[in-house]
Amino acid sequence: MKTTTFNITGMHCASCVVMNEKSLKKVPGVTEASVNLPLKQATVTYDEAQATERDLHQAIKSAGYGVALSENQPEHADSSHLRQMEVAIAKSRSLVAIILAVPAAVVGMSGWSFGQELYGFELSMWLVAVLSLVIILYLGRQFHLGLLKEVRHLSPGMDTLISLGTLSALGYSVWAMTAGENDFYFETGAIITALILLGKFFEARSTGQASAAIAKLLELGAKTAHLIENGEEREVDIGAVKAGDVLLVKPGEKIPVDGRVVKGASSLDESMLTGESLPVDKKIGDDVFGATININGAIEMKATKVGANTVLAQIVKLVSDAQTKKAPIQKLADKISGIFVPIVLVIAAGTAIAWYLASGDVSTALINAVAVMVIACPCALGLATPTAIMVGTGLGAERGILIKNGEALEKGKKIDIMIFDKTGTLTVGKPTVTNIAPIGSMDETAVLQLAASLEKLSEHPLAQAVVKAAKEKNLSLSEVYEFQNLAGKGVKGIIDSVVITIGSPRLMKELGAATQAAEAMIQDLEAQAKTVVILARDNKIIGLIAIADTIKPDAKEAVAALNKQGIASAMITGDNRRTGEAIAKELGISQVLAEVLPQDKANEVKKLQSQGQKVAFIGDGINDAPALVQADLGIAMGTGTDIAMEAGNIVLVAGSPHKAVEALYLSRLTFKTIKQNLFWAFAYNAAAIPLAALGLLSPIIAAGAMAFSSTSVVLNSLRIKKRGARF
Ligand code: ADP
Ligand code: MG
Question: Mutation test of ligand 1: which of 575, 578, 593, 597 has the most ligand atoms closer than 8 Å to its C-beta?
Answer without folding.
Answer: 575
